[in-house]
Amino acid sequence: MKIATWNVNSLKVRLPHLLEWLDAAKPDVVCLQETKLEDASFPRAAIDKIGYAACCHGQKTYNGVAILSRLGLEDVQPGIGGYEDDHKRVLAATVRGVRVVCAYVPNGQAVGTNKYEYKLQWLAEFARWLGEELGAHEKLAVLGDYNVAPAEIDVHNPKRWAGQVLFSEPERAAFQRLLGLGLQDAFRLFPQKERSFTWWDYRLNAFQKDMGLRIDHILVSPALAARCRGCWIDLGPRRLERPSDHAPVVAELELG
DNA sequence: ATGGTAGAAACTCTA
Description:
Number of helices: 6
Radius of gyration: 17 Å
Shape: globular
CATH architecture: 4-Layer Sandwich
Order of helices and strands: EHEHEEEEEHEHHEEEEHEE
Structural class: alpha+beta
Oligomer: single chain
CATH topology: Deoxyribonuclease I, Chain A
Largest sheet: 6 strands, mixed
Number of domains: 1
């Protein structure tokens, strides 16, 4: 089973890229972030037409998540259990016995701001809830835009990014707490090329200069880590005209 | 050098 995550930065704008990518990459499950669409505006027909079921949890203008699957979707649940959040950032569903969580972690804007404090609080609630989910689901995959680069190797210029939002110590500690629950970073289960990134700022021609960060991740429970056969970043969609600022991340799971 | 671009919406906010 091929699972993927992609921050599309407006599903309305990126729908042609998404349909093209689904046809080319043929993932079985795709978690989308920043759909920026209310559920009533979700392009269900176009996605259904190419064989994917979809569930969505969206809002106008900001945030919004969705899960697409060509292997069915069961037990769909929005939000972080036990945490009231006005932002639509989390959606979970079960596919072939795998509990899939799609997450759009708050960006945090800048260290020291209210949005940064919200991000840290949000990550604490997320970790608390994922601990519960790990207890309930042996096969758990948590895919999304974490808005955290875990290590220096995940940042094009770690000296310049030191202490900045997306790479500050408290954010990295919050990410490590997710790993501390027993989740594993699927990308780092395998050898990878240096300078592997998933996001490049639209500004300053960052993609062309390879000035990126790896902030989109697929975390897997031990049972899935043992079945993970590969994990890679697909740069194709980032090279298109009018792209998302993020590239998709894909993992291959071998299920019995 | 504290810029720059993109998206949605609406004369600004978020990323």
